[in-house]
Amino acid sequence: MSHGLHTFLEGHPLIHTLWVIKKDQWKQWSRLEDTVKEILSLKKQLGCVGYDVAIDLSGLFRSGVITWFSKAPVRLGFAESDEGSPFFYTHRIHGSMKIHAIDRYLEIARYMGCKINSIEYPLAPYNPAPGILQTLPKKYVVMAPSAGKPANQWPAEKFGELASRLSLPSVVIASGGEAGIADTVVAHAKGNAISIAGKTGLKELIPVISRAAFFVCNDTGPMHLAAALNIPVFAVFGPANPVRTGPYGDIHTVIQLDLPCAPCYAKYPCTRYDFRCMKDLSVDQVYDAIYRKTKAP
């Protein structure tokens, strides 16, 4: 996995070894020499371990190659992967693209003979009371206004207006590089939001999110962390497909306009339809969805 995110898994009792790669660097032609050296080193090291089984849940060409590097006699992945990764598998499992990603991953577990009647989210050890908690209100909502893809981002100004209407203050989370988005939310929240963007790692976010009354977000990574912690999620969706990547569980709410062009899976805001899946979704609609579930003015 890429640098930085691996710290979230450090110390996990179910993980013996973490293999960390610079996957973003692999896309840079200017770093080609370093990338080739890293790939060759990874191939050599993985091949020396003696793995029995390699499982690829990503279905990318890169991840398929890594399963091959493992020299595992059994290499599992999805038959529907479209980047050529199935070429590297010894066993290809059919996982429907019409179900949630978690249920899709469980199909591989089922194939291996695992029981999948209950789902648990074991987390790596973390500090349940980091210092950041001392700076937060006693009761609060957590907002995650950023998103991995620009097209999945509801305007930060609307998040701010939403925060101004809630009875509880909002704690806005984001990476340090996205602090500007969090600042925009705070600027439009009329004093009812604070930003802790860039002040926590993923492990510090766990206790912050676990104490929230509920979680408001775009389609983003921390959304799944909130769902795993059983915190009610209100997720704004535009071009993404909540059936596949929405918050997993019955207590969560997806807020999405019913448009014939959605989901389109766009990475960037569209010009053909003026990005109406996000632009036309009003603060009133999101607020009303929250109010109906929480009955909190």
UniProtKB/TrEMBL annotation:
One Pfam family, short name:
Glyco_transf_9
Q: Check the record and name the InterPro entries matching this protein.
A: Glyco_trans_9 (IPR002201), LPS_LOS_Heptosyltrfase (IPR051199)
* Superkingdom of the organism of origin: Bacteria
User: Under the cellular component aspect of Gene Ontology, which terms does the record hold?
Assistant: cytosol
Keywords tagged on the record:
Glycosyltransferase, Transferase
Q: Where are the transmembrane segments?
A: none
Matching SUPFAM superfamilies: UDP-Glycosyltransferase/glycogen phosphorylase
What Gene Ontology biological process does one annotation of this record name? Answer: lipopolysaccharide core region biosynthetic process
Q: What is this protein called?
A: Lipopolysaccharide heptosyltransferase I
Q: Name one GO molecular function term.
A: ADP-heptose-lipopolysaccharide heptosyltransferase activity
| Keyword Glycosyltransferase among record annotations | yes
For whether the record's keyword set contains Transferase, the answer is: yes
The gene is rfaC
